[in-house]
Amino acid sequence: MDPSQFTSATFGTVKREPGKKWAFWYFHPAPIPRELPLAPTTIHALSKADAAVGQLQGLCQLIHDPELLVGPYVRREAVASSRIEGTQASLSDLLQAEAADGEGRSEDVAEVERYLTATRHGYEAIRSLPISQRLLKEIHAILLDGVRGKEKLPGELRRSPVWIGASHDNPDSAIFVPPLPDEVPEVLSDWEAFVNTPDSMPTLIRCGLMHYQFETIHPFLDGNGRIGRLLINLMLTEEGRLDHPLLYVSGYFESHRSEYYARLQKVREEGQIQEWLQFFLRAVTEQATDANTRSIRLIQIREKYLNTAAATRSRLPSLANILFANPFVTVKSVERKTGLTNQGARNLIAKAVELSWLTEIGSIGRGGRIYWVAREILDVIDAPANYTSET
Length: 391
Prior knowledge:
The chain is mainly alpha-helical.
């Protein structure tokens, strides 16, 4: 790490381990500020983000069953956050593996599924626990359980240095070296105290600062990015800004990956906190707007399907709900989720094909299992975001 690049000490200082002549340079974060004057541009971005999140929260309260939207959106977040870290799994890959009850899943899909399990645990845990080091360790242990990274101390703070850069880098050539392991408990305690002081500044500003500081501390050997992004939604939920996890902010970070990393680094090097917060708030605005648009479209499709199903004496209403949880189905998955016999499941799928709800896409993988997809639903869930407001 080049100490000459760090020209501001506002958010931390560059140090060497005392008493070691050949020790490498690293970054020691300053405590998170409890007061932060906001630039006019940041205030404008905060206003837009607040309005977009408020609109999404309003939608949560208006629709009859928001849980039907939660599954697809949590999966979008899990896929995007994992892809930022190099996991090569698409949303379709994940949904197909789930429809096959996990048979033949790839390592990449397994990693995304661990992220989903960690996410669900986090949302369950914050009903009774604050966002704390205990919760972080629980989530981390689940995230790395049985997948790549399982040898990197799941559920434990790191006990060795880490650095950020290319795979061939060392501490001297890396772009960034987080604090040494002995310093992690102290700076993480300040982070925890900040997260649990809700009235110090606007929630979205605190979320942006929380995420920056967590990534800067890098408390674990692996999984820091995924956990840091998961914490954004957990914090919004804990503070009552979103009743349901419909904000998948990692989608914006993935699409703007270079800027995402650069904005975080510029805070460390030059103290550019306003620029980071503006980027973060723009991500929140864009993703909340996108989630609103998709939600409305999915609700319209669901109402159309349920109205059609109501005119029949069949299990079509239950199939409609299944398709919104996962638009990929097999005969076995329909059997399992409806309790129908094998022939009953086949008949129900045939009826859905007749209504143009489902399209057969043939067998996928080596198992020969035949899949059908609700293309109209998948197209809404999986369509790329249309980012518009870049200022």
